[in-house]
Amino acid sequence: MSPTVPRIADPESIPVAGVDDHLPPVPGDRLQPWPLRQRFAAPLTWQPELGGDGARFNPDGPTAQAAVLVPLVMRDDALQVLLTRRTAHLRSHAGQISFPGGKMEPTDADLVATALRETEEEVGLDRRHVEVIGRLPAYTTVTGFVVTPVVGLVTPGFGLKVDSGEVDEAFEVPLPFLMTPAHHRRHRWDAGGGITRQFLSMPWRNAAGQQYFIWGATAAMLRNLYGFLAHG
To answer: Pairing with 152, which of 53, 79, 174, 223 sits 20 to 30 Å away (CA)?
Structure first.
């Protein structure tokens, strides 16, 4: 029997083992709509740095297909990544920063349809504002979801209607900030019994001073987006 993987109840308390400020940021001219369309239209041979959380709470249990939308909102100053903060009462991922998305349903034509449907349901972003430009490799979470990130450019002028049963708020973070490894922190937790949990975080503070702790699977998928764009 596999050892029980400990849950991380307070990720902000886990020590920082390192910061990746030795890596260069993605050049600003690559973080524009047209270069992004080109990069996803003709991807180079590339392997993601992070394929999953490295462990599962139930390693012998089944996995489930899921998808998230990585919404890149086309603002005048820079592209912004639309993220959500989950409500505190959810059974899984409570209070965490996430992309909109969820489990694939039998009625979904494919994983792109899953990402668009879930985004409409969670934050009210109508799919007519979303131009899907590609996907990133799937990421397997500690809870057994095989998550495909679907990347889309979002035309401004949309309205949001947050589902308060799942989402506390939706907010935007500048893409250049997230594509700068000097903002990527590595955490390591020795939980005892030979078990170690590791994860990335990308803490961000908005202009009003509110702190958002982006970590775990969301940070890992953003790191994979960084690798994809940095090697383009």
So the answer is: 53
Task: Write out the two tokens for 101.
Answer: 């998305």
Q: Are 195 and 7 in contact (CB under 8 A)?
A: no
pLDDT tens digits, residue range 101-115?
A: 999 999 999 999 999
Q: Is the pTM of this model over 0.85?
A: yes
Cβ–Cβ under 8 Å, residues 118 and 35? no
Q: Which two tokens mark 134?
A: 């590609």
Structure tokens at 70: 């990585």
CB 195 within 8 A of CB 6: yes
Give the helix/strand (H/E) hosting 220.
Answer: helix 216-230
- What DSSP string describes 70-135? EEEEE-SSSEEEEEEEE-TT-SSSTT-EE-SEEE--TT-SSHHHHHHHHHHHHH---GGGEEEEEE
How many residues does this entry show for the chain? Answer: 232
Cα separation of 114 and 147, whole Å?
A: 11
CB of 136 closer than 8 Å to CB of 149: yes
Evaluate whether 30 touches 232 at the Cβ level (below 8 Å): yes
**Phi, psi angles (nearest 5°) of residue 148:** -100, 120
Q: CB within 8 A of 133, min separation 6: which ones?
A: 36, 37, 40, 41, 151, 152, 153
Pairing of strands 79-86, 97-98: antiparallel
